Structures are given as C-alpha cells and as structure tokens.
Amino acid sequence: MRLDHRILVSCLLLAGISPAFAQQTAAPDPVVVSQQVPLDEIRRYVTVFNAVRAAYVEPVADAQLMQSAIRGLLLELDPHSSYLDAEQAQLFEEQSRGAYEGIGVEVQTLKDKVLRVIAPIDGSPAALAGIQPGDLIIAVEGKPMAAITDPEPLRGPAGSSVTLSVRREGQSKPLEIVVQRQTIRLSSVRSRMLEPGYGYIRISTFQADTATDFAQHARALAAQAESQPLHGLVLDLRSNPGGLLTAAVQVADELLEQGTIVSTRGRLSSSDSQFQATPGQLLENTAVMVLVDAGSASASEVLAAALADNQRAKVIGSRTFGKGSVQSVLPLDNGDSIKLTTARYYTPSGRSIQAVGIAPDIVLKPEGEPIAAGEYREAGLAGHLLGEEELAQVQSGDFLPGDEPVQQALAALKSSVPGTDGE
C-alpha cells in the first residue's frame, strides 16, 4: 500500500521532528540516530491506518484514528502513563484541587476497563455505600465496563444516582450497589485526641491544600494538650492512594528540622530533583507513629519513608503498595494532556521502593477475616515499571480497616515514649 505523504508528515510533526531532518540519507552521527523517526515503523503504521480507514465495517474519522494511535503510544508503557483528553485533564486538575462531582473513589483501570478500587475517600458517597478497597467495578448501570465509552462513568451531576456491579473477593455473585453522586469537596485531613497527651491525624489523600490543613490540625492538637504536653501523634496514611508529591514533601517538611525528604531521578535532567527539609518544625518534642497498609501508595509512601529514614517516626501496619514512580502532566495545544511516568523516587537512604513497598517496623494483622489483598500491589499490575530492588517473593500487604489498628498504633507509640506506660 502506498505511503500517504501527508500522514507521514503528520506523524513526524507529532514526534517533534521535521520531515526534512527525518528523510536525511547521509550517514548520520551516532548521537543523532536515536533522535530520528524509524521510517519503516511509520510506514507500517500508515499501512494499518489506511487499511482501517478503507475497510473497517463502519467509517472512522481520521482524528479518532490518530488519537487512538497516540493513546497506543502510552498504553503499554506502564499502568500510570495515560492520555487525558480535555475533559479528563480538567477532571484530573479538579481532583488535585479537591472538588468534583462523583462518588469519591480512587480506582485503577484494569483489562477490559474494569476498575479496581484502591480506596474510597473518607466520608464519600462510595464509602457510605459500602465500597471497599480491592472491589472490582465490572459494570455501570448494567453495562459492562468494556462497552462504556464515557471516560469517567463514575462522575456525574450531584444528586444523580449510579448503580455499580461490584465483584468482591469471597462473594459468589456480583453485588449491585447504588451510589448517589455528590459534590466531593475533599477535606484531606482530619484529627482528634485519642487520649490526654496523644493525638491522631488522618490524611486521606494529598492535594494542593493538604500541607496547610495538616499544619492547622497539628497546631490545634498541640493547643488542646496545653495542660499536658503532646507526647505522641498517630499519623494515619492507611489506604491513602497518594496525589501531589509536593504536598507530601510539604507535610514531611513540617515534621522535619533537616535532612533529605525525597529525591527523583529520570532520563532527563529536568526529572532529577532533591527535596530538603527547611529549618523549623511542628511538634518538635512529639513522637510520631505512621500507620500504613496495602492501600498506602505513592505520595503516602514518600511521606512514611521520609519520616522513617530520618528517624523522625516509626512505621506500623502492613507492607505498602509499592508505587515508587513520578508522573508528569504534559499539556498539549488542543487542551488534552499526557500523564507520563518520568522518574523514580528515592527515599532519603537512597532506596527505590518501586514494586517493593515499605516494610513496617511493626507489623499488624487485620482483626477477624482479612480483606483479601491478593495481588493488590504495584508488582501485581500488568506492565508495571520494574523495581530496582523488586523481589518476586515479596507478598502484598493487608488492608487494615477500622479503629483497632489505631489503638494498636497508640499502644506502640506510648511504649516508645519515656516516662509513660511503656517505660
């Protein structure tokens, strides 16, 4: 089939390379070779493009085919790289800001568009309806996920209802769960006093205002403990799926006086960075116990590792998810964006936890019948970025719901504080 020159030029321009440069025939410099478009592969693509265009059972617009091709560039890189159309890009930005209309759940897209629940957001319609970490959403309004074209089928106007078909480990038949959408205004931080001298802060996700909210809650707990010093703090990151890396860095900085928080390294020099704590810290004389589980991922792992490696806190709970990669959002000129994995992050001690996760200092087991985590970990995702220290024998952690893990973290915290119950 003849190569359509206009299509070839379009492909080259998409690659950011001029057609004249790509068609050079002189023996190129070795450094330049890696920058050239592989013309044989482009010709193969155009052959398929024209075959689909001419013979597919129904007409397909050129723009749709081209966008599908661009999506395909990202599809099999790793589970966290993706193409976001303008609507998806806007929704992604809204989620970072902390307000959108939907059911309030973090999900991972699997084969056939099935959605695996990472965690329902605290207090969200999904949480109130009984959606659990590890649930598989296999259909929406009775329509299988593979047949749904809406990129965000769980989103919708506040007040509208959506029926989800959910496959749950241990259940012989899918569950039908009705969830009423709401405007999800995410307050990512909440706190309370556990008992005199011991506070609790829960961070459910990391968004733009998380660090500011954390500082306010920490100061409020310290003020409540004026009659008695705040001896200890349980920092709860269970089933926190992550979010903005910068927010996690800012929270770590609030608790550290000095030291490295996290570093990132990628192929481009712009992906290399190192974040250092700045002088001045909150709760200087307060011991910290970080509570994690199998649903603690990405930015929450950054925070836990930063505090642990700097001997500012101990980690209690279960092995974390193991997402040790950084995604950059690259806006395109048509309003769409690319979410691309551009770097690995490294803990202050130089470890990459990609596909390994964080092993807690103190291991907790779930009370009663555990929620099966199965392959609920980064290393269990098809096409995941290989970890530098990935070990096949590392098992996924457990989910640790309920208040019992908090009480266990409190007991461990008290035992570590001189002059209290433990010593």
What this model shows, in words?
With 423 residues, this protein is of the alpha+beta class. It has three domains: 5-72, no CATH class; 99-185, Pdz3 Domain (Roll), CATH 2.30.42; 189-416, 2-enoyl-CoA Hydratase, Chain A, domain 1, CATH 3.90.226.10. Helices cover 27% and strands 24% of the residues. It contains eleven helices and 19 strands. Strands 3, 4, 5, 6, 7 and 8 form a six-stranded antiparallel beta sheet that branches. It has a six-stranded mixed beta sheet with strand order 10-11-12-15-16-19, with helices on both faces. The chain starts with a helix and ends in a 7-residue tail after the last helix.
Properties at a glance:
single chain, 423 residues, alpha+beta, Pdz3 Domain, 2-enoyl-CoA Hydratase, Chain A, domain 1, 6-stranded mixed sheet, 11 helices, disordered N terminus
Number of domains: 3
Instruction: Profile the largest sheet.
Output: 6 strands, antiparallel
Number of alpha- plus pi-helical segments: 11
Name the beta content range. Answer: 15-25%
Task: Report the radius of gyration as a whole number of Å.
Answer: 24 Å
CATH superfamily of the largest domain: 2-enoyl-CoA Hydratase, Chain A, domain 1
- CATH topology type of the largest domain: 2-enoyl-CoA Hydratase, Chain A, domain 1
CATH class of the largest domain: Alpha Beta
Low-confidence stretches: 1-33
Number of strands: 19
Mean pLDDT: 85
Q: What is the CA–CA distance across the termini?
A: 81 Å
- Tell me the quaternary state: single chain
Order of helices and strands: HHHHHEHEEEHEEEEEEEHEHEEEHEEEEH
